[in-house]
Amino acid sequence: MKFTGAALCAAAALLPSASATIYYAGVAESSGEFGVWSATSTPGTGLPGRFGVDYSFISTSGIDVMVDQNKANLFRVAFLLERMCPLSYGLGAKFNETHFDYYKQAIDYITKTKKAYAILDPHNYMRYNDPSSQPFSGSVIGNTTDPKAATTAQFGAVWGELAKRFADNEKVIFGLMNEPHDMPSSLLLANLQAAVDGIRKSGAKNLIIAPGNSWTGGHSWTQGGSEASSNWLYKIVDPLNNTAIDIHEYLDQDYSGGHLACTQPAATNLAAVTAWLEEHNLKAFITEFGGSNTTNCTTMLSDMLDYMANNDVYIGWTAWAAGPFWGTASPCCTDSAQFGSLEPGSKAANGGPSLYDTVWLPVIQPKVPKQLQWSGPATVSGGKVGKKC
Ligand SMILES: *[C@@H]1O[C@H](CO)[C@@H](O)[C@H](O)[C@H]1NC(C)=O
Ligand SMILES: *[C@@H]1O[C@H](CO)[C@@H](O)[C@H](O)[C@H]1NC(C)=O
Ligand SMILES: *[C@@H]1O[C@H](CO)[C@@H](O)[C@H](O)[C@H]1NC(C)=O
Ligand SMILES: *[C@@H]1O[C@H](CO)[C@@H](O)[C@H](O)[C@H]1NC(C)=O
Ligand SMILES: *[C@@H]1O[C@H](CO)[C@@H](O)[C@H](O)[C@H]1NC(C)=O
């Protein structure tokens, strides 16, 4: 019998998956949150901003390279709540439809044109109304003693509306919030639960990923006494049991991703959160991690990718970060040196190779599993894995 390429792909898709499986792997797309930072902390800077000038979501040619050549199947796409829900509307179900349309075009390109998976990423640190000094500015959502703060119910409403709009797209994953920090964990849980309730009330069955407190750091998941994420995050109730945990983990001295040197091994630092995930029968994505192009980072990044691949609680990851607006700036791990980003085709400021050339291609790319999920709904239990056709 003569096999066509399509037939071979179909056959590969029927292979059963191993017990520890990464179903979704790719890169964070960061640029949608750009253009609002103000050296003088002037509220409203860069709002609403000019699409394609101050901010953007993806470069379609970059996504093409990542999917067609690199066989990556997951993209986490950042946006700002202050652009989706302008301050004059307030946080909630009323969107700036022009802005939403630009965002949806990016999500549709990834999920429909390229048939990969996309994580919606409100890049807001559980704050809303002043992104001018992110990650610290803006009122904490649900802070009842701050009269300017959006409410927990408003946060539920924004997610109910997003869910309604993406419910018919099983390849869209709802990342509830980027890096909550410096807030009571009880309030974090209340906000996350309001979002889950809003999503399920809308009828959407999509996979949800929920972050912890303290920048959703994996290494500190069980630290902080009664405030530790480990004391709260298992309490989220999802009637469909289709919610996973969203973890960030950097390998430098203070886990910030700011430094060139990698000194924090993932296997050691993730051991406690891994045990917690097992204890509560939860799965996780690591949606931010990274390292520089130093020898130590090469080893430690590679070890981290192996660690995720070998522990069955981890089902997906996105490295930080690609995106069309980084230019020669670096998203992480360079002590502010301009070594470029993970965006295909980007360059360092000295004209040398970018982190795409020195970190993605040699270190991360070999760890993109040969078989990933290419069809069907994203779920906590994954779908059938196979080679990209
Ligand atoms: C909505 O977004 C468009 C496109 O960025 C912008 O021109 C417009 O001013 C925005 N409207 C509000 C109310 O922010
Ligand atoms: C809540 O708002 C009050 C009043 O503005 C402020 O003092 C407090 O720090 C805020 N809490 C958080 C977690 O931001
Ligand atoms: C969700 O999990 C709970 C606890 O294991 C179980 O009782 C319930 O039937 C599950 N619901 C669905 C929809 O799978
Ligand atoms: C690299 O790691 C070795 C030990 O594994 C350490 O001695 C050395 O200082 C590290 N280099 C940097 C630049 O961090
Ligand atoms: C990392 O990349 C930059 C930019 O291309 C280059 O200048 C630097 O020498 C590289 N560092 C190492 C350790 O290879």
Overview of this structure, please?
This protein has about 400 residues and is an alpha/beta fold. It contains 10 helices and 12 strands. The protein has helices at about 5-15, 60-70, 80-85, 95-115, 150-165, 185-200, 265-270, 270-280, 295-310, 355-365; strands at about 25-30, 75-80, 115-120, 125-130, 140, 170-175, 210, 245-250, 285-290, 315-320, 370-375, 385. Strands 1-2-3-6-7-8-9-10 form an 8-stranded parallel β-barrel. Strand 6 (about 170-175), helix 6 and strand 7 form a beta-alpha-beta unit. The longest helix is centred in the first third of the chain and has 17 residues, at about 95-115. The model is unreliable at about 1-10 (pLDDT under 50). Bound molecules: 2-acetamido-2-deoxy-beta-D-glucopyranose (5 copies). One 2-acetamido-2-deoxy-beta-D-glucopyranose binds near residues 240 and 241.
**Main sheet specs:** 8 strands, parallel, barrel
Q: Say what the CATH topology is.
A: TIM Barrel
- Determine the structural class based on helices, strands and strand pairing: alpha/beta
Proportion of strand residues: 5-15%
Strand segment tally: 12
Gyration radius, in Å? 20 Å
Low-confidence stretches: 1-8
Helix content range of the residues, please? 25-40%
